[in-house]
Design goal:
The chain is α+β, with helices and mostly antiparallel strands. Helix content is 35%, strand content 22%. It is built from 11 helices and 22 strands. The strands form 5 sheets. Strands 5, 6, 14, 15, 16, 17, 18 and 19 form an 8-stranded mixed beta sheet that branches. The chain has a 5-stranded parallel beta sheet with strand order 8-2-1-12-21. Strands 3-7-4 form a 3-stranded antiparallel beta sheet. α1 runs parallel beside α4. The longest helix is centred in the C-terminal third of the chain and has 24 residues.
Length: 401
């Protein structure tokens, strides 16, 4: 074998896996179709939820991201029609971090390329899968025991491997822009608006920039047809307690798309092949899970398979362990797909949101759920529901909500 692992795609997931494998003493080919090492993804809000904090710390990425200008968000204020949900400081929910992809992708690529055992091969596009390896656009055949698809939601590796795709609709569209000098008026160091069915966000993006994003339901597409920027400005201006953009400088074009479908595939579809990041699960972008899933799925795969790859033992059980770890993403993706339909919140959602406005215990659990720092059961369990119902009844009696 030329390598122990071939990783296709040198973005978040691919670079994370390559770095982890290289540090485990393995030989890694990290293939990237772009020739320019500064290439980066543009359609990405790059807000990395707190559930990824421990992975970034463990890999040593957190501090390096800070050194490159990343912004940390400790507490998001969440607007609902029942009021603002504001967590108490020091409640144990890990912080989020944001670093624009124009900085993040080259940084991760540099880290991976500097890791002993990792060969970063730019301008290499996979055109075929062969037994125990790949063929690239240069006619080169590379061999390895494991081929990893980290090549996005249109994964070439998955297509060549014949992996079935599960598609689900997204009934929202999205646009955002960066502003210099924007002033946040809501609580916390970032805000989310649950406008039902629309959603909006305002979060620090690093380097003195603020990302302001709109996720309207598709029934409002006509409003954005003629002049997207004017429609976006009107949307933001109507946000309750929204950011003040008067005097702020818009530091980017409007970024976005009118369709962002949800796609998922088996993360360990066949012997010798694994998928990570968007190649395995492209989730609804509204809850900002994509970057975190890329980091975490890459780390899970490396943790499960590095030992057998190093020892020359059977990869089958290791890939099954990876698939089991990946179910964490699957459980949240099931919820995300339902939310992406942009339907009104159900009675349970309304009850929990309303209770979280006045109950810090529920607010903390809602934040743990939103940050993906615990399993969905941290919020969706009978104890939380019972407490939320009691809180709502108490508020109704006392006139407190």
């Amino acid at each position: 074998m030329d390598y122990d692992v071939i990783i296709v795609g040198a973005s978040i997931a691919g670079c994370t896996a390559a770095t982890a494998y290289g540090r485990a003493g393995l030989r890694v080919a990290l293939l990237e179709r772009h020739h320019n090492p500064q290439a980066h993804k543009t359609l990405c809000g790059h807000f990395i939820l707190g559930g990824t904090h421990d992975v970034l710390q463990r890999l040593g990425f957190w501090q390096q991201m800070l050194d490159h200008g990343a912004a940390v968000t400790q507490r998001l204020g969440v607007w609902t029609d029942a009021g603002w949900i504001v967590r108490r400081p020091g409640d144990g929910v890990p912080p989020a971090i944001s670093l624009r992809r124009s900085k993040l992708d080259p940084l991760l690529r540099d880290i991976a390329a500097a890791t002993p055992g990792v060969d970063l091969l730019m301008g290499q596009k996979v055109v075929d899968l062969v037994e125990g390896g790949v063929v690239t656009n240069t006619g080169t055949t590379l061999r390895a025991r494991l081929v990893v698809g980290a090549d996005g939601h249109r994964s070439t590796v998955a297509q060549l491997a014949g992996v079935p795709e599960d598609h689900a609709p997204n009934e929202r569209f999205l646009f955002w822009a960066y502003y210099e000098g924007a002033r946040m008026n809501g609580p916390g160091d970032g805000q989310v608006w649950q406008l039902d069915p629309d959603v909006a966000v305002c979060v620090p993006a690093g380097d003195g920039l603020t990302l302001v994003g709109a996720f309207p339901a598709k029934q409002r597409l006509a409003e954005f047809a003629d002049d997207r920027l004017a429609a976006f400005d009107r949307f933001v201006a109507r946000l309750p307690g929204g950011p003040s953009l008067a005097g702020a400088r818009r530091a980017s074009n409007l970024v976005g798309t009118t369709d962002y479908p949800c796609v998922r595939r088996d993360p360990a579809p066949r012997p010798g092949v694994a998928l990570i990041g968007d190649a395995a699960t492209t989730s609804d972008p509204v809850p900002a899970v994509g970057c975190g899933w890329a980091f975490r799925s890459a780390a899970w795969l490396a943790e499960a398979t590095a030992g057998p790859l190093r020892d020359g033992t059977d990869l089958g059980p290791a890939l099954r362990r990876y698939r089991r770890a990946h179910r964490f993403i699957g459980r949240y993706d099931d919820i995300g797909r339902r939310d992406a339909l942009a339907k009104p919140p159900n009675a349970l959602q309304r009850t929990i949101r309303s209770a979280a406005v006045t109950d810090p215990w529920i607010a903390r659990r809602l934040a743990a759920f939103g940050s993906r720092s615990a399993a969905p059961s941290v919020l969706l369990n009978p104890v939380v529901v019972a407490r939320a119902l009691l809180t709502r009844a108490t508020c109704a009696r006392t006139g407190g909500g």
